Give the backbone structure.
Amino acid sequence: SMNRVVLITLFVFFGAALIDRVFNNRGSTFERTLYKFKSVVKKPVSLPKVALGYNANLDLIVEATELLELLAFPLPEKVLPPSDILKTSDDFVQTFAHFFKQGSAAERFIEGADLCRKIISTANRLNGTVAVGGNAALMALQFSEQGCPVLLGGSIGDKLKSLLPSTMQYSIGSSEDVTHLIMEYPIGARFGDLVSPRANRFIVHCDLENSRIKSLERFHEDLKTFSPDILVLSGLHLLEGELDEFRYSRTTDILLKLRDIPKSVAVHLELASIADMAFLKQLGQSIVPAVDSIGLNEQELGSLYLAMKGSDPDNLRSIPIDIVSKFKDPEVSLAISVLEFIFRFTEERRSVGNGRNLSRIHLHTLKYHIIGMRKISNWKNDADNAVVAGSLIATQKACGFNDIFSIDESLVDLFWEDKNQTIIEHYFGPDNNYYVAPVFVCKNPGKTVGLGDAVSTLGLIHHPFKK
């Protein structure tokens, strides 16, 4: 029993010492951040029913540089600007080189069926991984893992079905499996004379099923009987490879469908990489103001701002138009001023939503995440729980940790000046509130694909929408 007393004394002493370090800011930033995160993330009171459209496919994941070696396309003489649509092997190599040099994620449509077949069949010879792909399917998987009832719409063939949980419900637009190629590379990878500054991926496909959103009509029929709490839209970026008139008619179809969705359902749009500014501007003016919430990363934020600002040059004079470099690693203050701009821009176009208007933005950058929301909205007016849950899932997925709280300090970096010693920062303005959380950045990420989808999913589960 003496031993027990000693143990209890030690426990009380060291436990108190740790708490003292944490509260008096004597612990490491790592300890204090994790301690704060643990105190903030609460299990959701109830799990929402979630419907997701419109893109589901198979991802074939390969090592980018291995594939390029095997394809043996000539290396670029110098890095030229990227092509929006890949028509030739030169377009393919040039565009890859451009993004590889920046370490930026990008996605492109391959127009020639022969070129596409050649690239994908060559990739099949590598020792790649076949996984669930498409933002809607990846988010569906994540919602399902968290225990939510899920309806997924898209092109869903037998192979994809075999990779999805049996509890999931489907709205099948086409029963053919479609493959997208994910070319991943680590930090420091070499391609010709180029070296990648960070781990990332380049995605290519020639997928007409998803890029024409063929599952749209059937999915919205099936929604009526499923009656979700949250509707997640994604895959709209795939329309980029289509002609302008088709893109316009399809976004109009989506807008009309959204008008039939009861206002008690939270509608979230997950954005993805779009190169065509005219198309992004069209989405920014039509779909973005007509949903309740959007999720996006720092590059997408820069592009969306550029597309929207094109029609409104006076609103944010202080932000230079040289946006690409600015948004590789934006300061929090820059990000918030752009989110403010997007809220203003969508408020001015609120009539398109027919009673629904953008009231929440979840931004995930490499080093921090922000949830911004209008002061007057249906979202719970405290997003600490949601922004931290999103930050933690990004770390867990990137590093492959067992759960969101088991973080190995030696494998992550925090790029965070905790100026106010609060860890989670709040910026409350006259119209909008912002919740900012740091991210434990994985030093050697095992995966980069689907991280944003996981972040948005957890953000939505932990951020109740009032009926």
About this structure: Residues 412 and 442 are 5 Å apart (CA to CA). The first strand starts at residue 50 and ends at 53. Residues 2-23 form the longest helix (22 residues).
